[in-house]
Protein backbone atom coordinates (compact mmCIF):
# COMPACT_ATOMS: atom_id res chain seq x y z
CA UNK A 1 0.00 0.00 0.00
CA UNK A 2 1.06 3.58 -0.42
CA UNK A 3 0.09 7.16 0.19
CA UNK A 4 -0.13 9.69 -2.63
CA UNK A 5 1.28 13.19 -2.53
CA UNK A 6 0.40 15.76 -5.13
CA UNK A 7 2.37 18.99 -4.88
CA UNK A 8 1.68 22.25 -6.68
CA UNK A 9 -0.08 20.43 -9.49
CA UNK A 10 -1.30 22.54 -12.41
CA UNK A 11 -2.96 21.48 -15.65
CA UNK A 12 -4.11 23.93 -18.29
CA UNK A 13 -6.35 23.25 -21.27
CA UNK A 14 -5.57 26.26 -23.46
CA UNK A 15 -6.26 29.29 -21.30
CA UNK A 16 -8.40 27.27 -18.89
CA UNK A 17 -6.80 26.27 -15.59
CA UNK A 18 -8.36 22.86 -14.87
CA UNK A 19 -5.97 22.39 -11.93
CA UNK A 20 -4.31 25.40 -10.35
CA UNK A 21 -1.49 24.72 -7.90
CA UNK A 22 -3.16 21.87 -6.03
CA UNK A 23 -1.31 20.18 -3.16
CA UNK A 24 -2.86 17.28 -1.22
CA UNK A 25 -1.39 14.55 0.93
CA UNK A 26 -3.52 11.40 0.54
CA UNK A 27 -2.57 9.33 3.59
CA UNK A 28 -1.60 5.68 3.24
CA UNK A 29 -4.72 3.57 3.83
CA UNK A 30 -6.99 6.61 4.05
CA UNK A 31 -10.34 7.22 2.38
CA UNK A 32 -10.30 10.66 0.78
CA UNK A 33 -13.29 12.27 -0.94
CA UNK A 34 -12.90 14.96 -3.58
CA UNK A 35 -15.92 17.23 -3.77
CA UNK A 36 -16.66 20.21 -5.96
CA UNK A 37 -19.05 21.61 -8.53
CA UNK A 38 -19.12 20.29 -12.07
CA UNK A 39 -15.96 21.33 -13.92
CA UNK A 40 -13.96 22.06 -10.75
CA UNK A 41 -11.16 19.65 -11.71
CA UNK A 42 -11.95 16.46 -9.75
CA UNK A 43 -11.66 14.06 -12.69
CA UNK A 44 -8.65 15.92 -14.05
CA UNK A 45 -6.89 15.36 -10.72
CA UNK A 46 -7.70 11.63 -10.75
CA UNK A 47 -6.45 11.36 -14.33
CA UNK A 48 -3.11 12.91 -13.37
CA UNK A 49 -2.72 10.45 -10.47
CA UNK A 50 -3.65 7.52 -12.71
CA UNK A 51 -1.33 8.65 -15.48
CA UNK A 52 -3.96 9.10 -18.24
CA UNK A 53 -2.99 12.74 -18.48
CA UNK A 54 0.06 14.74 -17.43
CA UNK A 55 0.43 17.94 -15.43
CA UNK A 56 1.98 21.12 -16.83
CA UNK A 57 3.80 21.57 -13.56
CA UNK A 58 3.93 20.06 -10.10
CA UNK A 59 4.74 16.66 -8.71
CA UNK A 60 2.98 13.39 -7.98
CA UNK A 61 4.48 10.77 -5.70
CA UNK A 62 3.04 7.35 -4.91
CA UNK A 63 4.60 5.57 -1.94
CA UNK A 64 7.25 8.29 -1.85
CA UNK A 65 8.33 7.66 -5.46
CA UNK A 66 7.88 10.29 -8.18
CA UNK A 67 5.61 8.98 -10.90
CA UNK A 68 5.29 11.89 -13.34
CA UNK A 69 7.16 9.89 -15.96
CA UNK A 70 5.82 6.47 -14.99
CA UNK A 71 3.22 5.15 -17.49
CA UNK A 72 -0.30 4.14 -16.39
CA UNK A 73 0.33 0.39 -16.35
CA UNK A 74 3.32 0.72 -14.03
CA UNK A 75 1.67 2.98 -11.45
CA UNK A 76 -0.19 0.01 -9.90
CA UNK A 77 -3.48 1.78 -9.53
CA UNK A 78 -6.99 0.30 -9.53
CA UNK A 79 -9.86 2.31 -10.96
CA UNK A 80 -13.63 2.23 -10.96
CA UNK A 81 -15.72 4.68 -12.94
CA UNK A 82 -19.44 5.37 -13.09
CA UNK A 83 -19.70 3.68 -16.52
CA UNK A 84 -17.68 0.73 -15.34
CA UNK A 85 -17.64 -0.88 -18.82
CA UNK A 86 -17.52 -4.60 -18.11
CA UNK A 87 -16.84 -6.83 -21.12
CA UNK A 88 -20.37 -8.01 -22.05
CA UNK A 89 -19.33 -11.27 -23.70
CA UNK A 90 -17.17 -12.45 -20.84
CA UNK A 91 -18.29 -14.13 -17.63
CA UNK A 92 -18.01 -12.29 -14.33
CA UNK A 93 -14.95 -14.39 -13.42
CA UNK A 94 -13.25 -13.65 -16.77
CA UNK A 95 -13.98 -9.94 -16.38
CA UNK A 96 -12.29 -9.99 -12.98
CA UNK A 97 -9.42 -12.13 -14.32
CA UNK A 98 -8.67 -9.76 -17.19
CA UNK A 99 -5.87 -7.72 -15.58
CA UNK A 100 -4.12 -10.83 -14.30
CA UNK A 101 -4.39 -12.58 -17.70
CA UNK A 102 -2.88 -9.56 -19.46
CA UNK A 103 0.01 -9.74 -17.02
CA UNK A 104 0.52 -13.37 -17.97
CA UNK A 105 -0.06 -14.82 -14.51
CA UNK A 106 -0.31 -18.62 -14.15
CA UNK A 107 -3.80 -20.10 -14.53
CA UNK A 108 -3.91 -21.47 -10.97
CA UNK A 109 -2.87 -18.10 -9.52
CA UNK A 110 -5.52 -16.34 -11.59
CA UNK A 111 -8.23 -18.75 -10.42
CA UNK A 112 -7.39 -18.34 -6.74
CA UNK A 113 -7.00 -14.54 -6.92
CA UNK A 114 -10.29 -14.15 -8.81
CA UNK A 115 -12.01 -16.31 -6.21
CA UNK A 116 -10.60 -14.16 -3.42
CA UNK A 117 -11.71 -10.94 -5.09
CA UNK A 118 -15.20 -12.32 -5.75
CA UNK A 119 -15.44 -13.49 -2.12
CA UNK A 120 -14.50 -10.01 -0.97
CA UNK A 121 -17.32 -8.40 -2.96
CA UNK A 122 -19.66 -11.27 -2.03
CA UNK A 123 -20.22 -12.50 -5.57
CA UNK A 124 -18.46 -15.86 -5.38
CA UNK A 125 -21.56 -17.73 -6.53
CA UNK A 126 -22.07 -15.58 -9.62
CA UNK A 127 -18.68 -16.02 -11.35
CA UNK A 128 -20.26 -17.85 -14.28
CA UNK A 129 -22.83 -15.21 -15.14
CA UNK A 130 -22.59 -12.57 -17.84
CA UNK A 131 -22.80 -8.88 -16.87
CA UNK A 132 -26.31 -8.48 -18.34
CA UNK A 133 -27.54 -11.14 -15.89
CA UNK A 134 -26.55 -8.96 -12.91
CA UNK A 135 -28.20 -6.04 -11.10
CA UNK A 136 -26.61 -2.58 -11.20
CA UNK A 137 -25.15 -3.03 -7.73
CA UNK A 138 -23.74 -6.44 -8.62
CA UNK A 139 -22.13 -5.04 -11.77
CA UNK A 140 -20.58 -2.31 -9.66
CA UNK A 141 -19.13 -4.99 -7.36
CA UNK A 142 -17.64 -6.81 -10.35
CA UNK A 143 -15.98 -3.57 -11.43
CA UNK A 144 -14.58 -3.20 -7.92
CA UNK A 145 -13.33 -6.81 -7.85
CA UNK A 146 -11.69 -6.23 -11.23
CA UNK A 147 -9.98 -3.10 -9.90
CA UNK A 148 -8.56 -4.72 -6.77
CA UNK A 149 -7.64 -8.19 -8.06
CA UNK A 150 -4.27 -6.96 -9.31
CA UNK A 151 -3.43 -5.72 -5.79
CA UNK A 152 -3.05 -2.05 -6.70
CA UNK A 153 -1.40 0.38 -4.28
CA UNK A 154 -4.11 2.98 -4.71
CA UNK A 155 -7.80 2.81 -5.61
CA UNK A 156 -9.30 5.67 -7.64
CA UNK A 157 -13.08 5.87 -7.73
CA UNK A 158 -14.79 8.39 -10.03
CA UNK A 159 -18.48 8.64 -9.07
CA UNK A 160 -18.62 4.83 -8.84
CA UNK A 161 -22.09 4.82 -7.30
CA UNK A 162 -23.55 7.60 -9.44
CA UNK A 163 -25.69 5.27 -11.58
CA UNK A 164 -27.32 3.47 -8.65
CA UNK A 165 -30.64 4.36 -7.08
CA UNK A 166 -30.65 5.80 -3.56
CA UNK A 167 -31.28 2.58 -1.56
CA UNK A 168 -28.74 0.55 -3.50
CA UNK A 169 -26.30 3.41 -3.29
CA UNK A 170 -26.47 3.41 0.51
CA UNK A 171 -25.91 -0.39 0.58
CA UNK A 172 -22.94 -0.02 -1.73
CA UNK A 173 -21.49 2.81 0.37
CA UNK A 174 -21.41 0.47 3.38
CA UNK A 175 -20.01 -2.35 1.28
CA UNK A 176 -17.35 -0.21 -0.32
CA UNK A 177 -16.22 1.11 3.03
CA UNK A 178 -16.04 -2.43 4.44
CA UNK A 179 -13.91 -3.63 1.52
CA UNK A 180 -11.66 -0.59 1.72
CA UNK A 181 -11.09 -1.21 5.44
CA UNK A 182 -10.52 -4.90 4.92
CA UNK A 183 -7.75 -4.42 2.35
CA UNK A 184 -6.54 -1.12 3.82
CA UNK A 185 -6.02 0.46 0.41
CA UNK A 186 -5.46 4.22 -0.07
CA UNK A 187 -8.68 5.35 -1.74
CA UNK A 188 -9.46 8.58 -3.57
CA UNK A 189 -13.14 8.99 -4.25
CA UNK A 190 -14.80 11.58 -6.46
CA UNK A 191 -18.42 12.27 -5.67
CA UNK A 192 -21.13 14.88 -6.20
CA UNK A 193 -22.98 13.62 -3.16
CA UNK A 194 -21.94 15.57 -0.07
CA UNK A 195 -23.67 13.19 2.32
CA UNK A 196 -21.68 10.34 0.77
CA UNK A 197 -18.47 12.31 1.27
CA UNK A 198 -19.36 13.13 4.89
CA UNK A 199 -20.27 9.58 5.88
CA UNK A 200 -17.57 7.64 4.05
CA UNK A 201 -14.35 9.56 4.12
CA UNK A 202 -11.59 10.32 6.66
CA UNK A 203 -10.80 13.54 4.83
CA UNK A 204 -12.50 15.70 2.25
CA UNK A 205 -10.98 18.10 -0.25
CA UNK A 206 -13.20 20.74 -1.84
CA UNK A 207 -12.20 21.95 -5.29
CA UNK A 208 -13.45 25.08 -7.02
CA UNK A 209 -12.26 26.31 -10.43
CA UNK A 210 -9.23 24.04 -10.23
CA UNK A 211 -8.16 25.22 -6.78
CA UNK A 212 -8.30 23.36 -3.50
CA UNK A 213 -10.37 25.71 -1.32
CA UNK A 214 -10.35 23.65 1.88
CA UNK A 215 -9.42 20.19 3.05
CA UNK A 216 -9.59 18.28 6.30
CA UNK A 217 -11.70 15.78 8.25
CA UNK A 218 -15.45 15.97 7.43
CA UNK A 219 -16.43 17.37 10.84
CA UNK A 220 -13.78 20.05 10.73
CA UNK A 221 -14.90 21.32 7.33
CA UNK A 222 -18.55 21.19 8.35
CA UNK A 223 -17.99 22.94 11.69
CA UNK A 224 -15.32 25.40 10.60
CA UNK A 225 -15.69 26.33 6.93
CA UNK A 226 -13.14 28.90 5.87
CA UNK A 227 -15.17 30.51 3.10
CA UNK A 228 -18.80 31.17 2.23
CA UNK A 229 -18.30 28.76 -0.64
CA UNK A 230 -17.16 25.89 1.63
CA UNK A 231 -19.95 26.68 4.12
CA UNK A 232 -22.68 26.49 1.50
CA UNK A 233 -21.18 23.77 -0.70
CA UNK A 234 -20.79 21.23 2.10
CA UNK A 235 -24.11 21.35 3.90
CA UNK A 236 -26.44 24.30 4.13
CA UNK A 237 -25.65 27.57 5.90
CA UNK A 238 -27.25 30.91 6.71
CA UNK A 239 -24.81 33.64 5.73
CA UNK A 240 -24.89 37.07 7.36
CA UNK A 241 -22.75 39.83 5.86
CA UNK A 242 -21.54 42.90 7.69
CA UNK A 243 -18.51 44.52 9.30
CA UNK A 244 -16.35 42.96 11.97
CA UNK A 245 -16.71 44.18 15.53
CA UNK A 246 -13.94 42.16 17.18
CA UNK A 247 -16.33 39.50 18.56
CA UNK A 248 -18.42 39.03 15.43
CA UNK A 249 -20.07 41.28 12.88
CA UNK A 250 -22.54 44.13 12.78
CA UNK A 251 -25.26 43.84 10.13
CA UNK A 252 -26.16 46.90 8.01
CA UNK A 253 -29.23 47.55 10.26
CA UNK A 254 -26.96 47.69 13.34
CA UNK A 255 -27.78 44.24 14.75
CA UNK A 256 -24.74 42.53 16.28
CA UNK A 257 -24.00 38.85 15.63
CA UNK A 258 -21.50 37.26 18.02
CA UNK A 259 -19.20 34.58 16.62
CA UNK A 260 -17.14 31.73 18.05
CA UNK A 261 -13.97 32.92 19.75
CA UNK A 262 -10.74 32.34 17.91
CA UNK A 263 -11.00 34.07 14.56
CA UNK A 264 -9.40 37.50 14.51
CA UNK A 265 -10.18 40.00 11.82
CA UNK A 266 -9.42 43.71 11.84
CA UNK A 267 -12.38 45.68 13.25
CA UNK A 268 -14.41 47.37 10.53
CA UNK A 269 -13.39 44.92 7.78
CA UNK A 270 -16.09 43.32 5.67
CA UNK A 271 -16.85 39.79 6.85
CA UNK A 272 -19.57 37.14 7.04
CA UNK A 273 -20.94 34.85 9.69
CA UNK A 274 -22.14 31.34 8.79
CA UNK A 275 -24.67 29.41 10.89
CA UNK A 276 -26.00 25.91 10.14
CA UNK A 277 -29.82 25.74 9.95
CA UNK A 278 -29.99 22.98 12.59
CA UNK A 279 -28.11 25.13 15.12
CA UNK A 280 -30.86 27.76 15.28
CA UNK A 281 -33.79 27.44 17.67
CA UNK A 282 -37.10 28.91 16.58
CA UNK A 283 -39.95 29.98 18.89
CA UNK A 284 -43.02 32.20 18.83
CA UNK A 285 -42.01 35.80 19.48
CA UNK A 286 -43.01 36.43 23.09
CA UNK A 287 -41.71 39.99 23.07
CA UNK A 288 -38.43 39.56 24.88
CA UNK A 289 -35.41 39.50 22.58
CA UNK A 290 -32.59 39.97 25.09
CA UNK A 291 -29.20 38.90 23.81
CA UNK A 292 -27.86 37.69 27.15
CA UNK A 293 -27.82 34.09 26.00
CA UNK A 294 -26.40 34.51 22.53
CA UNK A 295 -27.65 35.66 19.18
CA UNK A 296 -31.30 36.62 18.69
CA UNK A 297 -33.11 37.81 15.59
CA UNK A 298 -36.78 38.57 14.94
CA UNK A 299 -38.41 37.26 11.78
CA UNK A 300 -41.56 35.98 10.18
CA UNK A 301 -42.17 32.42 8.96
CA UNK A 302 -42.87 32.36 5.21
CA UNK A 303 -43.13 28.59 4.73
CA UNK A 304 -42.36 25.19 6.18
CA UNK A 305 -41.12 22.20 4.21
CA UNK A 306 -41.86 18.84 5.78
CA UNK A 307 -39.20 16.14 5.23
CA UNK A 308 -40.34 13.27 7.45
CA UNK A 309 -38.12 13.38 10.51
CA UNK A 310 -37.45 17.09 10.24
CA UNK A 311 -38.93 20.30 8.85
CA UNK A 312 -37.26 23.35 7.38
CA UNK A 313 -38.71 26.74 8.28
CA UNK A 314 -38.06 29.66 5.95
CA UNK A 315 -37.94 32.85 7.96
CA UNK A 316 -37.92 36.35 6.41
CA UNK A 317 -35.83 39.00 8.11
CA UNK A 318 -34.72 42.35 6.71
CA UNK A 319 -34.88 41.17 3.09
CA UNK A 320 -33.08 37.91 3.80
CA UNK A 321 -34.56 34.40 3.92
CA UNK A 322 -33.10 32.30 6.72
CA UNK A 323 -33.44 28.55 7.07
CA UNK A 324 -34.04 26.73 10.34
CA UNK A 325 -34.22 22.94 10.59
CA UNK A 326 -36.13 21.39 13.47
CA UNK A 327 -36.67 17.75 14.36
CA UNK A 328 -40.30 16.69 14.12
CA UNK A 329 -40.74 15.70 17.75
CA UNK A 330 -44.48 16.29 17.89
CA UNK A 331 -44.26 19.86 19.19
CA UNK A 332 -46.72 22.40 17.77
CA UNK A 333 -45.90 23.53 14.26
CA UNK A 334 -45.46 27.15 13.39
CA UNK A 335 -47.66 28.54 10.65
CA UNK A 336 -46.72 30.85 7.78
CA UNK A 337 -47.04 34.47 8.92
CA UNK A 338 -46.05 33.69 12.51
CA UNK A 339 -43.70 36.21 14.13
CA UNK A 340 -40.77 34.29 15.61
CA UNK A 341 -37.52 34.68 17.50
CA UNK A 342 -34.45 32.85 16.27
CA UNK A 343 -31.77 32.09 18.85
CA UNK A 344 -28.41 30.45 18.51
CA UNK A 345 -25.08 30.32 20.23
CA UNK A 346 -21.97 32.28 19.23
CA UNK A 347 -20.23 28.87 19.37
CA UNK A 348 -22.32 27.85 16.34
CA UNK A 349 -21.35 30.99 14.45
CA UNK A 350 -18.27 30.93 12.21
CA UNK A 351 -16.62 34.22 11.28
CA UNK A 352 -15.40 34.27 7.68
CA UNK A 353 -13.27 36.95 6.03
CA UNK A 354 -14.83 38.53 2.93
CA UNK A 355 -13.69 36.80 -0.28
N1 LIG B 1 -9.26 17.22 -22.47
C1 LIG B 1 -9.78 18.41 -22.15
N2 LIG B 1 -9.70 19.45 -23.00
C2 LIG B 1 -10.18 20.66 -22.67
N3 LIG B 1 -10.78 20.95 -21.49
C3 LIG B 1 -10.88 19.95 -20.61
C4 LIG B 1 -10.39 18.63 -20.87
N4 LIG B 1 -10.62 17.85 -19.79
C5 LIG B 1 -11.25 18.65 -18.88
N5 LIG B 1 -11.40 19.90 -19.35
C6 LIG B 1 -11.99 21.05 -18.64
O1 LIG B 1 -11.37 21.15 -17.39
C7 LIG B 1 -12.32 21.48 -16.37
C8 LIG B 1 -12.30 20.44 -15.27
O2 LIG B 1 -12.86 19.25 -15.76
P1 LIG B 1 -13.07 17.96 -14.84
O3 LIG B 1 -13.60 16.87 -15.71
O4 LIG B 1 -11.83 17.68 -14.09
O5 LIG B 1 -14.19 18.48 -13.83
P2 LIG B 1 -14.98 17.67 -12.69
O6 LIG B 1 -14.80 18.43 -11.45
O7 LIG B 1 -14.55 16.24 -12.70
O8 LIG B 1 -16.45 17.82 -13.23
P3 LIG B 1 -17.72 16.81 -13.18
O9 LIG B 1 -18.16 16.84 -11.75
O10 LIG B 1 -18.70 17.47 -14.09
O11 LIG B 1 -17.25 15.47 -13.65
C9 LIG B 1 -13.65 21.62 -17.08
O12 LIG B 1 -13.89 22.98 -17.34
C10 LIG B 1 -13.45 20.83 -18.35
O13 LIG B 1 -14.28 21.32 -19.38
What features would you describe in this structure?
The protein is of the alpha+beta class. It has two domains: 4-223, 3-Layer(aba) Sandwich (Rossmann fold), CATH 3.40.50; 236-353, RNA polymerase II/Efflux pump adaptor protein, barrel-sandwich hybrid domain (OB fold (Dihydrolipoamide Acetyltransferase, E2P), Beta Barrel). It has eight helices and 20 strands. The protein is elongated, with a radius of gyration of 25 Å. Bound molecules: adenosine-5'-triphosphate. The site of adenosine-5'-triphosphate has 11 residues, from β2 and α1.
Q: What is the end-to-end distance?
A: 39 Å
Major β-sheet profile: 6 strands, mixed
Using only C-alpha atoms, the radius of gyration works out to 25 Å
Secondary-structure content class: alpha+beta
User: DSSP helix count?
Assistant: 8
Number of domains: 2
Look up the CATH topology of the largest domain: Rossmann fold
Number-wise, the strands total 20
Describe how the helices and strands are arranged:
Blueprint lengths: L3 E10 L2 E11 L4 E5 L6 H9 L6 E6 L2 E2 L10 E5 L10 H11 L4 H14 L15 H13 L5 E5 L7 H18 L2 E5 L3 H7 L2 E6 L2 E6 L1 H6 L4 H6 L4 E7 L3 E3 L5 E3 L11 E6 L5 E4 L10 E12 L3 E8 L2 E8 L11 E6 L4 E5 L2
Parallel strand pairs: 3-8, 3-9, 6-7, 7-8
Antiparallel strand pairs: 1-2, 1-4, 4-5, 9-10, 11-12, 11-14, 12-13, 14-20, 15-19, 16-17, 16-19, 17-18
Helix pairs in contact: 2-3, 2-4, 3-4
The site of adenosine-5'-triphosphate (ATP) has 11 residues, from strand 2 and helix 1.
Key features of this structure:
355 residues, six-stranded mixed sheet, 20 strands, 35% strand, binds adenosine-5'-triphosphate
